[in-house]
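Why does residue order matter? Because the sequence determines the fold. Keep that principle in mind as you read this record.
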Amino acid sequence: MIGKISGRVDYRGEDHVLVDVRGVGYLVYCSDRVLAALPGPGEAVALYTDLLVREDILQLFGFPTLVEKEWHRLLMSVQGVGAKASLAILGALGPEGVSRAIALGDWNAVKAARGIGPKTAQRVVNELKDKAPTVMAMAGRAPAASDPDAVLEDLPATAPRPTPAAPPPSRGAAQAEALSALTNLGYAPGEAAGAVAEAAGADAQAETPALIRAALRLLAPKG
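Structure:
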């Protein structure tokens, strides 16, 4: 199993990138959103990967974080969702958007992805809702795939030393910390995840304390 690729970008296609690892090129399929964030040719890149094995083909799929890779794995477990559909969902929503949509049971958000119909979107939400808290919690401790030092060590001493692109900022850690705090207070993981997702949707820039306060207001008894 190939779990991670670190090397230099050779070229980017419409749905994939070719990563040169010490002279060996690995073709890695990515979502539109991930491809747009990758550095240019010759620059260092690192991606977590998932290997799809079929009778007639081997395909690598790349993700900048373990959280996104885990959502890809879970999405692929849903009947009717293949690798292309999974990348479409992740490309449209991002891993945090997927977490929020599934925690809230918002199948309309999932349906917004290209090629995803209402029945498939509902199936995704229904089958994965109980798993959303676990994946959201991963965001607080899972590292990003980028490892500039390791990538640059692979380059010849005479080669130009590119500056690897920084990973895009993520609010996943704040959501994971808020989720952990709420579960420590005794709230069930499912309801805590839904409240944190709703709070994050209302204020995408909220830090952990603000998310906890907003989620507690949402969880407070009504009336």
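The longest strand covers residues 44-53.
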